[in-house]
Structures are given as C-alpha cells and as structure tokens.
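2024-03-11 09:14:02 INFO worker-7 job=invfold-0412 stage=load source=structure_tokens
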C-alpha cells in the first residue's frame, strides 16, 4: 500500500460541520466544598449515572454576582462524578478568561440546550420527610429502550437502565440499587433503592408488587425509610409517581 502524497491532504483528513447537543451544568455557587457535598448527596450512591458525558458549565447565575470560580478544582470535581467539562457559557469576561486558562472553551448558547444537570442553590436541606425537590426546567422524553433483569439483586449490586425503562422480574434486596432514566417496574419485592427519572424525567414512575424500599426517587425528589410509607402501600402492590414536587403513593388493585 503506497502512502498518500503530503500534498494530497484531503486523502488523509477533512473538516465537516457538525451540530452537537450538550448537557448544561447550571452552576449556582462558587463554594466548591458545598457543591461537592451536594453532588455527593444526589449522585454519590449512583456512581454509574454519568459515563464521561461532556457538559457545558453555565455561569449565568454567577455572572450576575461576579464571583470568582476555581475552574481547575471545579473540572476535577465534575470528573469525580464522570462528567467531562469542555466549555463554559454565560459568564463575565473575567470568568470566561479564567475558564479558558483552565482549558475550557467558550460555547455559544445554542450548543447546550438538550438537557440540564441542576446544582444546588443553597446548602442541602433535609426535611423531616427527607424529600428533596429539584427543579427540572425541561421535559426529558422517555426513550423506547427497555432493560430486563430476571435474577435477584443482592446487597451491593446496582443496575442502571440508561435512556429507558427497567423491568426487574426478581427481588431487589436490601442494599441493592435499581436506576433508570425512565420508569422502574419490579414484579417482585422491592426492598432496596429505586431511582427513576434519573436525568429529570418527571413522568417516570416506580411500580412494585411488594413495596418496602429503602429509598425512592423520581427526577431528584427523594424519600427514605426515615418516613414510613402509607399503610395502604407498605408491603403491597403499589406505584409511586411525582405530583409537583412531592411523591405520591397509589395502591394497585390486582
């Protein structure tokens, strides 16, 4: 095979226009210690939720406050949660220059509109019922793909249905965790953690034939065993849905 002539560059590479949709990470604090705690609170139990996904850091809120951001530390923090920061937008001139010095590029507004990864505006507040409402300004449609699990999940095991629903045909035991971007269906006892609508799908639901979970979450709104489930759904067939910023529990008649 003969090598391409140095003068014939088009035989080796080319440039073509491309349009990419990136997630935007809305940064609402310059206190990275508090941010790390908030990220751990929300995503610490779901280490595989993100898989090196590229994000644009949205500085709109901090621009109005003219706050300094330690971008090298912020980039490293996001990397801990498998988020790859590649650009910034919405910042002041000084903030943008600081971000560029850390290796980020300035992104136009249209390049980060598909979805948003929300941060916490204030310190994480634990209510008595342990439900943490999270703003989701965009609707994330549920994908058509579905993952099936037909073996029991033991303590320490985690399953994540990225981009779709999760159907489990065996028990989810204490210490196990099931996660889906869509809805979760457990046709057996649900005793572990169930996180539906993991990336903001407020229409997602959780179904189980025997409802006694350690933790429930839909689109960022959580409830743990600190608050017992209603008697009409505890240990019974039930569904969990999101109504506004509260989890609603409905028994299922079989």
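2024-03-11 09:14:09 INFO worker-7 stage=emit residues=254
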């Amino acid at each position: 095979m003969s090598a391409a002539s140095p003068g014939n560059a088009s035989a080796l590479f080319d440039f073509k226009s491309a349009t990419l949709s990136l997630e935007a990470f809305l940064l609402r604090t310059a206190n990275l210690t508090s941010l790390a705690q908030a990220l751990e609170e929300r995503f610490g139990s779901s280490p595989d939720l993100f898989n090196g996904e590229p994000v644009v850091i949205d500085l709109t809120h901090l621009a109005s406050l003219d706050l300094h951001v330690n971008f090298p530390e912020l980039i490293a923090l996001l990397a801990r949660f498998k988020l790859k920061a590649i650009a910034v937008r919405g910042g002041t001139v000084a903030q943008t220059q600081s971000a560029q010095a850390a290796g980020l590029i300035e992104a136009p507004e249209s390049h980060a509109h598909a979805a948003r990864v929300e941060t916490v505006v204030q310190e994480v507040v634990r209510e008595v019922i342990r439900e943490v409402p999270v703003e989701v300004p965009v609707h994330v449609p549920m994908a058509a793909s579905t993952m099936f699990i037909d073996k029991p999940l033991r303590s320490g095991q985690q399953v994540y249905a990225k981009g779709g629903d999760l159907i489990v045909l065996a028990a989810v035991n204490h210490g196990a965790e099931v996660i889906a971007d869509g809805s979760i269906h457990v046709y057996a006892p649900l005793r572990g953690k169930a996180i539906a609508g993991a990336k903001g799908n407020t229409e997602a639901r959780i179904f189980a034939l025997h409802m006694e979970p350690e933790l429930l979450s839909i689109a960022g709104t959580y409830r743990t065993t600190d608050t017992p489930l209603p008697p009409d759904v505890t240990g019974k067939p039930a569904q969990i849905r999101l109504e506004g910023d509260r989890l609603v529990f409905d028994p299922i008649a079989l």
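2024-03-11 09:14:09 INFO worker-7 stage=report msg="The radius of gyration is 21 Å."
2024-03-11 09:14:10 INFO worker-7 job finished
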